[in-house]
């Protein structure tokens, strides 16, 4: 049962008059907003807070509702009681943390435009709160924005009965509408009308903290209107059709790379192209390829509200059943809460970046071992190279850019930061072309070479300062037919352990002939089993260890090795 306040007839009429006048103003603005929103959204979603402005509430219904709600309020009005500005909590005192956290949460919901949750506030539960007037005012804002006008009037009457000033009520209730009008007009190219609403916000006089976050409100309402204009990230049919072509092609990697080179995609179209590719491969149950396309999509975030598109990727990763990858992407979301200071935002972003690096380091493949030590000793490597750039070589270019497996991009980014040169080599031209495209788009002056790794190293006469061996796959019994067909096309046979061992040994033989004393070698997809090295390092790792190399790091199913040069810098490991 909703609590009641006993009011004299004059006060009752005065409250009803003020509420009716305010709701008339709001209804008029909402009618304008509905018109502007519909101009950009032929079929707006019916559950959108903005679409509800025109369809659920009319000016007449909002002012003619009988004021029965006044008789439902249970507590007596506190004479002379005045509520503080709801955004000013610096002096707030509370007998327990619940009161403070409840008001803070409501403030944040109002600032961020979370009208749905605000509208669910329970008047009976907040009536004993020290700041029940402020909470009721915020609840009325949420109800108005979601079209629950009868409930809004109840909340508003309670707030006024508890001493909320007319100025604060007007500021809170009208500011959300004006920011929506401002954003809607901007989206429709009506800059002059948008500025009028911006000026109206200044005239209304927002509470101090809310005034600082007007930009955040603008972003919130712009996003809502963007959803109206383009509900559910509507994707051009051309992009959908091209993604379908790729998924049905016998060599999707080659097909997608060719389309990226020949089609005049904008960054936004590239984002949706990769997202659609992910959806296509999700349909056929290829989780790895789907996640790799989402990883590619993350490098082409549209500039209008990039955080929204980052959340889109997070959601799709969760749909794929990859919550850990989704969490890693969550750490990269750039938008910060408006209440944070620039120093706090910078600290949070730095912490997120460091945590992400730890996740990569823990979950990533062998390239993370090489990245870790190379970054730590980058200066020493540059000194040893005496004026030339240290050269990093990757044998086996990335095929799928899934989380933890994007070795080519990760190594290239590290080399770019540290001013190293980078060369990646692969037998599959599609992988080479994909790497070239990535270098071009990223502005990396690196080389992607189409060749068998062992043949490239046999002919190569340049320096090798670090090398990552991750080429011929070992036979784990789960390779797709597409992967097997690429081996049959380029190497004449399906994946098998014997050729995997021999190919990496051939690379090892060439490396030990041409390495520098400080050369770092990392072999991926190898581990000890009953005292013997397996998979890609079955023959290559023993060869390195027999020719003066030492194990510097063994984890992530990879072995990082270096010569005696490194013994004074890194504690060698003995995994036997």
Tell me the major beta sheet.
7 strands, mixed
Calculate Rg over CA atoms. 31 Å
Helix content: 55-70%
Beta-strand share of residues: 5-15%
Query: What multimeric state do the chains show?
Result: single chain
Structural class: alpha/beta
Per DSSP E runs of 2 or more residues, the count of β-strands stands at: 9
Give the overall form: elongated
Mean pLDDT across residues? 75
Q: Unreliable segments (pLDDT under 50, ≥5 consecutive)?
A: 1-13, 40-100, 207-214, 216-232
Distance between the termini: 72 Å
- Count, helices: 27
Sheet with most strands: strand arrangement: 3-2-1-4-5-9-8
User: Total domains, how many?
Assistant: 3
Description of the molecule:
- This protein has 576 residues and is an alpha/beta fold.
- It has three domains: 221 residues, no CATH class; 94 residues; 202 residues, Vaccinia Virus protein VP39 (Rossmann fold), CATH 3.40.50.
- It is 58% helix and 7% strand.
- The strands form two sheets. It has a seven-stranded mixed β-sheet, with helices on both faces. Strands 6-7 form a two-stranded antiparallel sheet.
- Helix 1 runs parallel beside helix 9 and helix 26 packs parallel to helix 27.
- The chain is elongated and about 90 Å long.
- The N terminus is likely disordered.
